[in-house]
TrEMBL record:
Residues 399-433 are annotated as: Disordered. Keywords: DNA-binding. It comes from the Eukaryota. GO terms for molecular function: DNA binding. Residues 70-145 form the HTH CENPB-type domain. InterPro entries: CenT-Element_Derived (IPR050863), HTH_CenpB_DNA-bd_dom (IPR006600). The keyword Amino-acid biosynthesis does not apply. This is HTH CENPB-type domain-containing protein.
Length: 473
């Protein structure tokens, strides 16, 4: 069915230029994953010589018609009482100093939709991120305040110190014994194929699935897992992707958490030379117990610096560009209304990664080198961070100079008040310096497994790996 038919009977009486403009807008919405802020409304209206307001109204009507078909006749929004319950739950979480992420809100909204016999239009019955943002705006869910863009990547003195501490711990980890060869202990420094990193892959889509990949320090890549939301998978998704890929199915969400990590660890121990890296916020007691059973050494990265210290993050741009090319080709061949299911996503993502790594075979090796993790070269990562920190401090000093010069001269009787004010500011600065942000503190956790038996002889754990991940708590 063409996009113009989604608006129902009104489409038959719609002028042809408006129909064409609506189809163009729907195509842009598909390309931008439903983000109306990225649609060229004015340019499209001028191209087809239609009114912008009328175009917006017809495009929204066409979009609502398409979403209602996905919902199979069930309501596609939560009733007011359900939204009130969701807002109350989020507020209670914030009152308990337990911030709620967008993904957690989506999962909770899906649960309430099941209680109230309604359904969201997204794959797996999950609402979109745009719906969550609109919900926050409607209900003024108080404390989820977005950081200004780019502030999460600022280099602070605390984060620099955490990175320096990480490299000292990393150097010690490279000296740990990974396995025994002929009775001789072999360290990670001698066996870089056992140094691994784990992270979710780029190009995630709202179709109820995630992709997890483990790159090695030698520059090799090994796809690890697809996490799907649902009760069962009805086709072999791994057949569309790389070999040795696990398929995990979770009933409530496709988010990687302690449950998914605990299920993923044994698979990695069976298919890889040994090892996994984990996000620090997902290392719950169950996942830690499984890691101990599988004999993993885990090193956590400091929060706020994973874009500089995590190798897989360095490859996201190249992989996303390749995925965009592959997806645009698929869209040109199949059209904007073609169904985009999970099997198609797996196939396109695999093709995009093959193209990205074929174009630059040293992509992963260069990423490890850029992070300074392998070969070990801390200055490779620390020198740019020091330069950024110095530039930030210089800019802050330059911004503070005009304001200080513009302040009026102190009156004779106000010296005591000025001294008290300066004392308060100094005490506040000292308190801030003494209590760094917990998210910037590096955490190191070594998990050693039990003794293994080989040919009847006792030996150290054969499967061990030094791994790095994210610690965002």
């Amino acid at each position: 069915m063409p996009p113009s038919a989604a608006a129902g009977p009104l489409a038959a009486a719609t002028p042809q230029p408006l129909v064409a403009a609506t189809e163009a807008v729907l195509l842009q919405l598909r390309l931008h994953k439903g983000d109306t802020r990225k649609v060229s409304w004015k340019e499209t209206a001028e191209r087809y010589r239609v009114n912008v307001t009328t175009l917006r109204r017809h495009a929204e009507a066409a979009r609502r018609g398409a979403l209602s078909r996905i919902g199979a006749g069930r309501p596609t929004t939560l009733p007011e009482s359900a939204e009130a319950r969701l807002a109350d739950w989020i507020q209670r979480q914030y009152d308990a100093e337990n911030p709620v992420s967008i993904d957690e809100t989506r999962v909770k909204a899906k649960e309430l939709a099941g209680v109230y016999k309604c359904r969201f239009a997204g794959e797996g019955g999950l609402p979109s991120a745009d719906w969550v943002r609109a919900f926050d705006k409607r209900h003024a869910v108080g404390k989820r305040k977005a950081q200004p863009r780019g502030t999460e990547r600022l280099v602070t003195a605390e984060r620099l110190a955490a990175a320096e501490d990480l490299f000292s711990k990393w150097e010690q980890a490279l000296g740990l014994v990974s396995f025994h060869r002929g009775g001789r202990p072999v360290t990670y420094r001698e066996a870089p194929h056992r140094i691994l990193n784990l992270d979710e892959g780029p190009a995630q889509r709202n179709i109820g699935c995630r992709f997890v990949l483990v790159p090695k320090a030698l520059g090799e890549r090994q796809s690890s897992c697809y996490i799907f939301c649902g009760s069962q998978h009805r086709q072999n998704y791994a057949a569309h992707g790389d070999p040795h890929t696990a398929v995990l199915v979770k009933p409530n969400s496709h988010i990687i958490d302690g449950q998914a990590l605990a299920a993923l660890l044994p698979h990695l121990a069976a298919t890889l030379p040994g090892g996994v890296s984990a996000d620090g916020s997902r290392l719950d007691p169950v996942a830690l117990r499984v890691a101990q059973q599988q004999a993993f050494d885990i090193l956590l990265l400091p929060g706020g610096l994973t874009h500089r210290l995590q190798p897989w993050d360095q490859c996201f741009a190249a992989c996303k560009r390749a995925y965009r090319r592959v997806y645009d080709c698929w869209l040109a061949e199949n059209g904007a209304d073609a169904p985009f299911d999970r099997a198609t996503w797996v196939r396109l993502l695999t093709q995009a990664q093959q193209e990205a790594f074929a174009k630059n075979p040293q992509l992963l090796a260069n990423a490890w080198e850029k992070c300074g993790l392998w070969p070990l070269n801390p200055e490779k990562a620390l020198a740019p961070m020091r330069a950024v920190l110095a530039a930030q401090q210089a800019q802050q000093a330059a911004d503070a100079a005009p304001s200080a010069a513009a302040q009026p001269a102190a009156q004779p009787g106000s010296s005591h008040t000025a001294a008290k004010q300066a004392g308060k500011q100094g005490a506040a600065a000292a308190a801030a310096q003494a209590s760094p942000d917990p998210a910037t503190v590096a955490a190191v956790l070594t998990v050693r497994g039990p003794l293994r038996h080989q040919n009847g002889a006792r030996s150290q754990a054969v499967k061990k790996a030094a791994v790095c991940g994210v610690c965002d708590r």
